[in-house]
Specification:
Two copies of one chain form a homodimer. By secondary structure, chain A is an alpha/beta fold. In chain A, strand 6 and strand 7 form a beta hairpin.
Chain lengths: 389, 389
């Protein structure tokens, strides 16, 4: 067994994204105790940073000590108990997971199914909510499996109107496009660190509204899991009246998240969103210049996750292998019904730069040419640069 | 919001322990994708390292993507379902958690209570197992709240005899004293990274025997949590027949665990155990030379977690504050019924050295002197050095 030295990689898949040197350096700072007064100050700083990032003042905002899916599990398991009904809008792989978890929580589930690649349809959701009382409406803001953005404001408003609590999966949206708890009047928002925040995977920021907290306090049974039990978590992260021991926080991972937040606020949230949008427009221009098409209609596209159709006759796995071999470039494959049909190209966080766009276009054109699908790298780069001008 | 620079700390509490520079450096290596072929090779290396460390060949050995308690939750939630009975031996705070989790899993729980500071009594456990069929016997090998070691081999044998599966909490034992799945014939063993492995907190190594895996495969219901569902986890970590996407592994944290394992095997497991034992003997000699007493009888003590009684008239919190202020030294407080009555002094992993023993004795003697309890630092150090000679 020998020390592991990772190869060079340019991360343009669906996550993780490239982690900046300053965040990597933060990870390596000396570990201190999780009950240390200085660490408690760091925890408060992270809570405040997350509330600012999600515009969630008055919400309970903490990073869960596990990858993004832990946010989903915490949301579902804390809000739902046996006898509850959940309406779950499905337009990709992640809402399917929500339904699985809701069933494990003992809830009954109404699925509102959509074609993959389309946003959630508010009219269909409204109809499902009207069928009977629902405790929860859950949906995905930014579907990582398809690259689609849904209208979180409209969907949260439907939940409010129906007296349901909203759960919004923002794993891929947070830090790439606006996530606005207050404007949406959302109840639970969660995310991951390895997408547009460009920290390593391993933490799940989550925000719970006062309504969500009241619903948890009014539960008849304890949540079915312990590590993500909101009441126990807040006795550790709450900060009021002293902290009770719950788990041992992942100290160094939290150094990384903190530094990623510092970097994001230094750049400015609006500037970050503009950077993602510009990178997306440049990539789209380059891809379209060589005849590659998007799965998703322009109005519904996520700038940070670009789902590109594999042209007929192209071996998609060979393209991914080619760009990895020749350019150390990682792009993503399709998931579920989209397997073999699309590539997923991430422009997330530190990977959302003109440099990444140019490298990706160059690598993709080279890989297509290697399969006899001659395309012009110059045309792709020229179109991208024009969009960036 | 500004970058966080942690203060210097010497970590001699109940965990985290000091993390070595080589492990910190590993954390900061560039993030690669969790589906990268090189990362898959790292995963296989970690699985093999954990199997070696726990002497668990033929077991499923993986690191869960969350702190040590995740190991407990995964063990309880995967093995127990409604209708099952669990016998749980309680001799400190951590088995109490097991009971809470088992109830959330829908199981009925028989507690076998012990005085805190005593090991689990096999005779009492045998009697509880004889009361009726039990699916699980759970206990803590190394109780972090008391510093007590229980006889894992004897307790696992009782479980086998009764037809129950054994769950052994090795959070504080792994890497400090022998943990031997094969010799114990144990079914589930789990641990954390921030104790004697001296990696940062955030991961929970776990090992499941073929019997445990068969019991999980024969469940009537899905486990009540999703992230720690063993079947789903193994579709990601299993390595046979291709990997299915489950969560996104905490890449950089796994770099750290891997490097900690490399360092441990370089030193040699036996040498590591001897180093912990020698440090403990030196600390004990020093403490006893100045009249400080242990909570736990010598035969039951964990070398890596020393529970020291607070002398009458001494303000224990002021002592901890004093050593933190003067020596940047963290030691632990008592938990639960031991709150205010003991200090918990860790000699774990990279913190189990003669240097740490000398620093801790010097700091403690100074703190006691500051409260008017004059003790001789020279006497303490002399006794420690004699033990080390």
């Amino acid at each position: 067994m020998q020390s592991f030295n990772p190869p060079r990689r340019i991360l343009m898949g669906p996550g993780p994204s490239d982690v900046s040197p300053r965040v990597l350096a933060a990870l390596a700072r000396p570990t201190i105790g999780h009950l240390d007064p200085d660490f408690q100050a760091l925890m408060e700083d992270i809570k405040a940073g997350l509330a600012r990032l999600m515009n969630a003042q008055g919400y309970a905002c903490i990073p869960l000590p596990a990858p993004g899916t832990a946010g989903m599990e915490a949301a579902i398991m804390n809000l739902l108990e046996p006898g509850d009904r959940a309406v779950i809008a499905v337009n990709g792989v992640f809402a399917t997971r929500m339904a699985d978890m809701a069933a494990r929580a003992g809830a009954s589930v109404t699925l509102v199914e959509h074609e993959w690649g389309k946003p959630v349809d508010p009219a269909k959701v409204e109809a499902a909510l009207a069928e009977g009382p629902a405790k929860v409406l859950a949906f995905v803001h930014a579907e990582t499996s398809t690259g689609v953005r849904s209208d979180a404001a409209a969907l949260c408003a439907l939940a409010r109107k129906a007296g349901a609590l909203s759960i919004v999966d923002c794993v891929t949206s947070l830090g790439g496009i606006p996530v606005d708890a207050a404007a949406w009047d959302a109840d639970v928002i969660y995310s991951g660190t390895q997408k547009c925040l460009s920290a390593p995977p391993g933490l799940a920021p989550i925000a719970l509204s006062p309504r969500a907290q009241a619903a948890i306090a009014a539960r008849k049974e304890k949540p079915r899991n312990w590590l993500f039990d909101f009441g126990l978590l807040m006795s550790y992260w709450g900060g009021e009246g002293g902290r009770s021991y719950h788990h041992t926080a992942p100290i160094n991972a939290l150094y990384g998240l903190h530094e990623a937040l510092v970097a994001l606020f230094e750049e400015g949230q609006q500037a970050v969103f503009v950077r993602h949008q510009r990178a997306h427009e440049a990539l789209a221009a380059g891809l379209e210049a060589v005849g590659l098409a998007f799965l998703v209609a322009p109005a519904d596209r996520l700038p940070q996750l670009n789902t590109v159709r594999v042209p007929e006759g192209v071996d998609e796995a060979a393209v991914r292998a080619h760009v990895l071999k020749h350019w150390d470039l990682e792009i993503g494959a399709g998931l579920g019904p989209l397997k073999g049909q699309v590539w997923r190209i991430g422009l997330m966080g530190a990977s959302a730069t003109p440099w990444h766009v140019r490298l990706c276009l160059t690598a993709l054109c080279g890989a297509l040419a290697a399969q006899g699908h001659a395309v012009s790298t110059e045309a792709a780069l020229k179109a991208a640069d024009k969009a960036l001008a």
